[in-house]
Design goal:
Shape: rod-shaped
Strand content: under 5%
Helix content: 40-55%
Low-confidence stretches: none
Number of helices: 3
Number of strands: 0
Mean pLDDT: 78
Distance between the termini: 76 Å
Radius of gyration: 26 Å
C-alpha cells in the first residue's frame, strides 16, 4: 500500500517553533502596571515613614513624594 502525501506545512510556523520565537520585552500594559505598582509602593512607604495621615498638605506633602525612576 502506497503512502498518501502529507499536507503542505506552513514554513513560517515551523521556523518559529524551532527558534522558540516570542516577545523580547514586556508589553506596554505590563510596563504601565509595573510603574503604577512602584509609584503606589513609594507613596505608601512615604506615608509610613513620615506619619502622613493621607491628607494633602501642599508643599510639605509634595516634598516627601518620590516618583518611580527619580532620586
Amino acid at each position: 500500500m502506497k503512502k498518501s502525501p502529507l499536507a503542505p506545512r506552513n514554513p513560517l510556523v515551523a521556523a518559529a517553533l524551532l527558534r522558540k520565537a516570542g516577545a523580547h520585552q514586556k508589553t506596554g500594559k505590563a510596563l504601565r502596571r509595573a510603574e503604577r505598582i512602584a509609584l503606589l509602593a513609594n507613596l505608601n512607604a512615604a506615608r509610613r515613614n513620615n506619619g502622613d495621615d493621607g491628607s494633602f498638605s501642599g508643599q510639605a506633602h509634595a516634598a516627601r513624594v518620590c516618583f518611580a525612576g527619580t532620586n
